[in-house]
Amino acid sequence: LKFACVSNDGIDEHMVWLIGLKIIFGRQLPNMPKEYIVRLLMDRNHKSVMVIRRNHVVGGITYRPYVSQKFGEIAFCAITGDEQVKGYGTRLMNHLKQHARDVDGLTHFLTYADNNAVGYFVKQGFTKEIHLEKERWQGYIKDYDGGILMECKIDLKLPYTDLST
Ligand code: ACO
Fold it and tell me: H-helix or E-strand containing 65?
């Protein structure tokens, strides 16, 4: 099992993984238009942190780091159907937090959570109260009716992953 952070960089293996993640998002996020999923997955401003097992994608999170604002917007998050509720989603989020803090220099995440995923995000430390100053995110993330805006503060020091995972 491994965790990788990839973007549309033309590397063959990354392209195969991005397509694998596209298929998972397409099935698990039925309200998202497929063209929109592909557009953001392939957009060079977005990155995807993925769980890979035996060279197959188990799930992932696609996000856009706003480095100047020090926050990231999670666009899509899903684990493939037969692997849900086994802990992959939690480990994935921990890898995302570690990468976003240590590589992108981010302090917060924002996301529009689907109603039925609010419980998952709460368990990952997200709240419906937004503490981030509006000036830092207003105009950066687009308003979206289909979900509830949630925030997560990334701890400055906490080791979110250990070397063996
Ligand atoms: N509602 C409430 N609690 C949940 C949900 C949920 N939908 N999914 C998982 N949990 C809980 C689990 O029970 C678990 O609780 P525990 O720690 O007390 O045992 C905890 O959250 C973590 O569970 P994991 O096994 O780590 O989560 P999983 O691997 O299933 O990943 C995810 C969670 C990504 C929501 C997955 O279930 C999924 O792909 N669902 C369908 C797609 C979806 O809803 N994606 C999010 C849409 S919002 C967006 O993309 C911005």
Answer: strand 56-66
